[in-house]
Amino acid sequence: MSKSNNRLTVTVFSIFAALLIIASLSSCANLTTAFQQPAVKLANVQLLEVGLLQQVYGVTLQVDNPNGYSLPIKGVNYAVKLGGQDFASGLTPNAFSIPANSSDQVQVEVRTNLMESFGHLRRLFADGPQDMDYQLSGNIQVDLPFVGAIPFSRSGTIPLTRRDNVDL
Can you give the pTM of this predicted structure? Predict the structure, then answer.
């Protein structure tokens, strides 16, 4: 009778463990299928400082979270082209979180030298602020299991602006 009880206990335990594993896997599958990819766009490029050797721009990225839960972001790798020319690339410096069904903006400072940004500066100061074509690409590093890095690519037009107290 002892062997029979042991077999029954092992069988019940095995069935319970198998059901637990199946339930865990199905709940993980639901999380990944319900996940909607966030979107990234270039919200603003502003000239902050002009120096003889370097210029400082403020680049604002907007991240949209279409999910019904907060989205923890480790960082955003990005590359920006303005007017068809490479302008800036990098990684956002800090982790952040986007609230559920919401958007947030991430601001980064970009430093360029005069040779790299001469064309952009000339356009900005010749006729004042104006729209410019842009291409934005990279990936969002989401801090959720089974999600990882999500690539993005977007293009459009954006107004180039300068801070009021910036003069050439």
Answer: 0.68
